[in-house]
Structure formats: C-alpha cells, structure tokens
Amino acid sequence: MAKVIHVHLVRGIAGTRRKDWYFSSISAVYTVLTAEQVGATKSYLLHAGLSGNGTVCTKRAVIKQSTLISGGSGGKHRE
User: Fold this and answer.
1) Alpha-carbon 63 to chain mean position
2) Which of 2, 17, 27, 33 could bond 37 through an S-S bridge, CB–CB 3.0 to 4.6 Å?
C-alpha cells in the first residue's frame, strides 16, 4: 500500500484558501511548500518518526503520514 503525507497548515498561504495538502512523500512536500511554511525542514521530518502513521506538530502545521487505501482487485481489507 502507498503512503500519503497530509500537511494541514495552521494558517493559509497568501493567495490561496487551501490549508490541507496531500503528498506522496516528504520530499514532495518541499517541491510545493517551504520549510518556513511547514515549520520544519525536510531533514527534520525525515527523522521525526512519521512512519507507522506518525504525526508531527509544529507552530505552523500538522504533518501526518498515513496509508493510502485504494480500490484493488476486489480483495478484502486486511490489517
């Protein structure tokens, strides 16, 4: 299963009302947002323990890693 990184910004970015962003990796976060907007550097998030559905809270954002569930070949969900 694929992972998804959810970034919820405490304050929106000028020019957009969007506060929730979804990425395929931590590296992808920094192709759109800056470390200042997130409140943490890429290096920090890579070592912060997001794996295993972890969460990191900064003064500017809440960053969560989760598993992306997609429709497969009709099999049942297993835990």
Assistant:
1) 5
2) 33
